[in-house]
Amino acid sequence: LAAGDTARVQELAEPLHPADIADLIEQVEPGERQPLAAALGAVLDADVISEMNEVVREQLIDVLDPGQVADVVTQMETDDAVAILEDMDEEDQAEVLRSLPADERAAIEEALSYPEESAGRLMQRDLIAVPEYWTVGQVIDFLRQAGDDVTSDFWEIFVVDPSHKPVGTMRLSLVLRSPRNVLVTDVMKREQTLIPVDMDQEEVALRFQKYALISAAVVDTSGRLVGVVTVDDVVHIIQEEADEDILRLSGAGDGDINDSVREIVSTRLRWLVVNLGTAIIASIVIGFFAGTIEKMVALAILMPIVSALGGNAATQTMAVTVRALATDQLTEANTRRTILKEIRVALINGAAIAFLVGVAAGLYFTNVHLGLVIATAMIGNILVAGLAGVMVPLTLDRMDVDPAVSSPVFVTMTTDVMGFLFFLGLAAATGLTG
Amino acid sequence: LAAGDTARVQELAEPLHPADIADLIEQVEPGERQPLAAALGAVLDADVISEMNEVVREQLIDVLDPGQVADVVTQMETDDAVAILEDMDEEDQAEVLRSLPADERAAIEEALSYPEESAGRLMQRDLIAVPEYWTVGQVIDFLRQAGDDVTSDFWEIFVVDPSHKPVGTMRLSLVLRSPRNVLVTDVMKREQTLIPVDMDQEEVALRFQKYALISAAVVDTSGRLVGVVTVDDVVHIIQEEADEDILRLSGAGDGDINDSVREIVSTRLRWLVVNLGTAIIASIVIGFFAGTIEKMVALAILMPIVSALGGNAATQTMAVTVRALATDQLTEANTRRTILKEIRVALINGAAIAFLVGVAAGLYFTNVHLGLVIATAMIGNILVAGLAGVMVPLTLDRMDVDPAVSSPVFVTMTTDVMGFLFFLGLAAATGLTG
User: Fold this and answer.
1) pLDDT at position A391, please?
2) Which of A1, A417, B31, B183 is at 20 to 30 A from B421, Cα to Cα?
């Protein structure tokens, strides 16, 4: 197919939804993406490019010259254009900006002036705002006259005062339902969620979720309406932020299956080296007890059980804590309660596992003393795991460090070190022998 | 505050958004939720209850009698009512249904007849559908006359043929912009995403995300329009599904910080016991080499490094794979490519880590042989980790088993067992001694 017949490729792709064409490009071998994109020609328009996976898009954009990028960007809405430009290196970005029409350049430059991942980058600047003293009829006439001059991509109409500060929002459904002579102020809802232009996108997403918003007004520091965030952009953010947490907790960075081998190696290797460090610390702890292990090899045999269960118990608590923090469910008010609950859970689970392991080890090695030592170590380690699993992410969050990135290292290290200390230390202290 | 003055509590809560009142209830101690709910009285309406965290809601609903639940449910939209009823036990559910007005009961019973987590449970039945031959003016008049008799919770109007099959969708913004005499067929978009009533909610969410939908028509098996899914419900699902993956990968089940201690203990303990099983298998492997370890305790000291790094490398790959599967990014077309890429990454990372560990161990224990053994074991184990991390979730997914739930057990077991086998087996086979 991609072996020559350009016209045929375009004919086949033409009826597809832009998102499906984007998918198609992502699915072919990385080496074939370039030729396929070339063959698609005009079918590969701004819509397709904004639908594309970020990683694949960056690879494609990299080989276009700034003039071509500028052409594409001109056809996009501000928020999509910003998404493309913010990933380019500064030089190319400046060159693309120079090739844009003045008004568009100004809009994008302003958006880029807001911090990354803020509402300012996310918002669209095309919106419908009407004065309070209008009637429904006037609104409808205004829209009919404006026709294609205004965006059709709006779901709510904002009502503003003379200084362009939002005073309310009207659902289009209510506008449609109301007779022409009804005043805008009687249709609009006064309570509305305003998004400050510098609010973090994660926070924006939480607001949308909490209040079931379709769109929301973005205001600058003086409270003036500057843009609108719509739910379709937020949907992507919710997915991205949750994905980030999964991947970071697992040490895969911001991994994407479209990353190149070199990118994957560099993120993952960094993490493996950090973990090598913590594993060495655990080994040093074991080293202290080399003499004890030499006297009783059963200790070495049981070591993985101590570390595996401590690690697992900690990971469970850590995942719940990290997500509760990310979704604003863990607040000052319930922190103490949550910690106390984790302690109770850890004591019960610790006791159950300790009983199982203690009895099994005692019977298998026909050594009651060994059974008691591992059982005690288990309760201690699962309690440590529960505490570390909740305290470490909480502390990191209070210090404004992303708990998903750094928690696993600290938590695993704590459970490994404490687990081996409890187990081998107790064995040594009580003079355990085979 | 909650110490008596009911009127004051209601006065304070009155101006709050339902979602904020719901938050308030979630934030207080579990024991105080009941009295607070009682004090809130009428302020605690259907809106507040639908906004509440599922776990907290269930706890509150449990103590209400079926008559009260029926009162609340009557005021809700079908989808919210279904969300409450589906969590109740069958007896209570039947009793609530009996207390409902006939039409509402029928609607809810129909929704409950669709599989759990399907579009049928998620959809609203209140929607606006108009015939193709109408004009924009007729649509507006129809809505103005109907007034409060029809829902105001719609963002698109569906156009249907005489057999009530959807033929297109109209954005409200376009309806507002068009002159009265324009035909509905000239405003509507013919291409639309139809959601079969039995489609899984995760699939529904992916469609919404991919095509940036605000609402979508739900059709029954004969293609007739039966309901509408709106994006605000989908937003919750995206969050939930991603959260589920994080928590399941971490063995915390569907953990929620509002779960009771008993629920937490039971989900987590089950997982810990499964992991105890896999840890015991790892211990048995070590047991085979007890003689080798007795001769050289350095092996026991280095064991945690082998298992920790294998486990970490596997978790990285597994997280990326699980998310790629969940978001439909890993398809037949790129499976082979992804596996080959993982092998290359594993070989590079394995070699790097093997070099570091080999040199460090060789120098520390002044034993070149030991350094070579651990380095070789490391490459082998990281390669196994990379393969297991991608193959296990893929295989489970092909077998229609949720990869997030079961992958970690198999993957960790594989890396532990293979790691110890490589390391201790190689040490024994090459006659390593201290």
Assistant:
1) 92
2) A417
Residue A141: pLDDT band by 50, 70, 90 thresholds?
very high
A363-372 residue pLDDT tens:
999 999 999 9
Q: What is the DSSP string of A300-345?
A: HHHHHHHHHHHHHHHHHHHHHHHHHHHTT---HHHHHHHHHHHHHH
pLDDT class of B87 with cuts at 50, 70, 90: confident
SS3 B161: coil
Chosen for mutation from A154, A193, A303, A318 (greatest number of chain B CBs closer than 10 Å) is A303
Tokens 């490019």 map to which residue? A49
Asked whether the beta carbons of residue A353 and residue B272 sit closer than 8 angstroms, the reply is yes
Lowest mean pLDDT among A244-248, B168-172, B427-431: A244-248
In the block, which residue shows the tokens 């449609």? A176
Q: State whether B278 and A333 contact (CB < 8 Å).
A: no
Q: What is the dihedral of CA B250, B255, B258, B259, to 10 degrees?
A: -120
**Residue indicated by tokens 């003293």:** A133
Listed residue (B413, B417, B421, B419) closest to B278, CA to CA: B413
The string of pLDDT tens digits covering residues A318-371 is: 888 888 888 888 888 788 888 888 899 999 999 999 999 999 999 999 999 999
**H or E, element range at B216:** strand B215-219
The residue-averaged pLDDT of A189-216 equals 90
Average pLDDT of the residues in B133-141: 93
Which has more pLDDT, B344 or B27? B344
CB B166 within 8 A of CB B127: no
CB A238 within 8 A of CB A215: no
- What is the CB-side half-sphere exposure of residue A219 using CA atoms within 13 A? 17
User: Does position A255 have pLDDT exceeding 80, yes or no?
Assistant: no
The residue written with tokens 């003079």 in the block is A431
Judged by phi (left if over 0) then psi (alpha if -120 to 50, else beta), residue B29 lies in beta
Q: Is the pLDDT of residue A91 over 90?
A: no
Searching chain A, which residue's CA lies closest to the CA of residue B350?
A269
Closest-CA residue of B relative to A177 is: B144
A132/B263: higher pLDDT = A132
Contacts of residue B349 in chain A, CB cutoff 8 Å? 265, 268-269, 272
Q: Which domains does chain A have, with CATH numbers?
A: 6-117 (1.25.60.10), 129-249 (3.10.580.10), 261-429 (1.10.357.20)
Nearest to B36 by CA among B62, B259, B26: B26
Contact B85, B97 (CB under 8 A): yes
Cα separation, A141 vs A147, in Å, equals: 10
Q: From the list B211, B276, B334, which residue is nearest A305 (CB)? A: B276
Kindly determine whether residue A333 and residue B27, on different chains, have CB atoms separated by under 8 Å: yes
Tokens describing residue B251: 């063995």
pLDDT value, residue A136: 93
Q: Given an 8 Å threshold on Cβ–Cβ distance, is A155 in contact with B178?
A: no
The Cα–Cα gap between B122 and B218 comes to 10
